[in-house]
Amino acid sequence: MSLFKNIFGGSEEEPKTSKLNWNPLTDLGQLNEISELSNTKAVAIFKHSTRCSISRMALKQFENEFLLDDKITLYFLDLLNYRAISNEISSRFDVEHQSPQLIVIKNGNAIYNVSHGDIDANDLERYL
What we know:
By secondary structure, the chain is an alpha/beta fold. The chain has a single domain (2-10, 21-127), classed as Glutaredoxin, CATH 3.40.30. Helices cover 30% and strands 23% of the residues. It contains four helices and five strands, in the order αβαβαβαββ. It has helices at residues 2-8, 30-37, 53-65, 83-92; strands at 23-24, 42-48, 72-78, 101-106, 109-115. A five-stranded mixed β-sheet has the order 1-3-2-4-5, with helices on both faces. The protein is globular, with a radius of gyration of 14 Å. The termini are far apart.
């Protein structure tokens, strides 16, 4: 079992070992906070499936490339545990559900939405 966990991971792993300052997105009410915060600073939501190896690779690549700590606030959504929040994100910000997915919110609106292999931390700067 641990061999498979080492290869594919487990839902309790992310983002504990990350070098990034992720804010866990665990409550629907936080979407109101995100909308409000996005009026003064861009917010990125990373939707991640903890059981998907593609999602895990996209997350690790994003974490390795990300250099904008002071310019954007990061939120991490474990969509397997918080599917209702994922659904509300899709509805509220008018984005189709994907996993993995990176959504940038500014002034209460999704201004950038990308998924899978197209997730690239270097692309974020142009949306700030």
